[in-house]
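Can you give me the bound-state structure? Components:
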Amino acid sequence: MSTTPTLLEVEEVGAAAGGPPTSTQRILTRLVHDKAAVLCLAFLLIVVLMAAFAPLITKLSGWGPYEFDSSAINSALGGVPNGSLGGISGEHWFGVEPQNGRDLFARIVYGARVSITIAISATVLTGILGVVLGMLAGFYRGWVDQLISRVMDFLMAFPALIFMIAILSSLPAGNRPVLLVVVISAFGWPYLARVIRGQTMTLANREFVEAARASGAKNLALVFREILPNLRSSIIVMSTLAVPGYIGTEAGLSFLGVGVTPPTASWGQMISSSVSWYSVDPMFFAIPGAFLFLTVLSLTVLGDKIRSVIDAGEAA
Amino acid sequence: MTRYVIGRLGGVVVILLAVCLFTYLIFFKLSPDPAVMICGKTCTPDRIDSIRTVLGLNQPLLTQFWEFLQGIVAGRDYGTAHCSAPCLGYSFQTNESVWTMITARLPVSITVAVGAAILWLLAGVAGGLISAVRQGTWWDRSAMALALTGVSVPNYVLALVLQYLLVVKLQVLPFPSAPAFSDNPGLWFESYLMPWTVLAIGYACLYARLTRANVIDTLAENFVRTARAKGLQRSLILRRHALRPALTPITTIFGMDFAGLLGGALITETVFGLNGIGKLAADSIAKNDQPVIMAVTLLAAFFVVIGNVVVDLVYTALDPRVRITSA
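Here's the bound-state model for the whole set.
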């Protein structure tokens, strides 16, 4: 499932380790020459722009995400949107929500904000936790490694989804997005840390680290100057593959009703509320579903391309 | 070997205890007072006190935890009622024994997991294998593009799309209802078909990608070159030499994924309204039914850690290289 980066992704990434880093320049030039990658980048750019300029865009489209338009729905029919295709019209570009007539376009635009902010913050937080703890365990070995590894075993044995739902539903409302990021990262970092730990162990025995140590470098300098730069490609690949995973997780948790709370818009939550309407108003489901799917797909394809560029670079 | 197994099982017990304690602490701290919840709205302070005494809620936290553990191993008494050996307490909502609730729903989750696993293993491994053999062809590229797409569909989105198309529009399948197999095998199959497919697609796509990568790597190994130099046929090399090393890593991942599903496919079961462990988890969380939440978390963790051990043992049996290094 899309909740945490699966073991499989970890193993696949884990195979490519320790070679010379591929330059960012090279990754970018390769991506620009790949049609599929360009398409994905373009779509993601649109989504990011939507998220960044949400208030401006909704001003242009005319309807805010929390405004009710009772003229767009047919209250005699239980609140089904007027007109075909879920009420798509010049006024409501993506139609309206059944029952309360909120503009779907505005909610998609604001939902993009939630998805992207949460996914990126969770990726950054898991990245920091995973890299730091993974490097500590791999570099110092001994009891540090024992401690960190046992915590990782424990967290990975945990039924993360059940537990995330349970924690989120029993915590007081508070700041939902922050809670989501914290909970997602708490269960996500071991998957990155495990790979980083293994690679750090290999790197720590390499000649250049030996040489740096012999010339008097302190442990801290060894870790950050010598080892960290060599972990760069693994970190890039795992992070790009983590973002779509976390978008899926956030949407999944919101879909299950423990994520972002209404009236704040989130794609998962829109899909969840469309469940009871999908036979009469399929567009209400199709639009957020399509956005979620396309965003995850673009990020996955992009992550995959970046990985193959880096793998090719290391093989060469 | 025996020592190794015993050591691993010891590790399992430690992890399960940690999961248990952690879950217990979190819910003890976070949840509203269970005595008030059981008692309901029309409640006198006296009754709350008596419920507290029966459940042992007035004792220190660690004593309560110890009694909970004792209950699992040896059973325990609640006031006058006795709850026998694997005692996980009683639901705050329905007063049913949690153990009975779990055993009643486990078959549904197992059916979902086994059916899906068969589907994704067949489709994923076969697809990946064909792609690897025909690397770079039209088939390979479209199969891998499809696999990437399949990985990206959130399973509840897929579930709703399938339900809309097959149940509402085309009406070729009934709404999933988890009937007993013996009552109506046809209906049983039809109503599990959608949950199986929805669960299987994501995994099948991952397995196809992994199988392809593994087979390609193996075919580039020296022993395959030797076999080719001996003049063996391609298909024979694939069957006799390449398949086993290429597929062994898959068993590891399969074991973990399958074990994870036995603890309940939460989203799939909820979307299709199947009364398995996953739905039980979702329902109990929604109603804040602590004993049940506790039990499903433990059960899921149990499957994962046991799965881990089984996977390692099977791996040692399948891959002689691991056996030599560990001895």
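A couple of observations. Strands of chain B lie at 76-78, 81-83. DSSP finds 14 helices and two strands in chain B.
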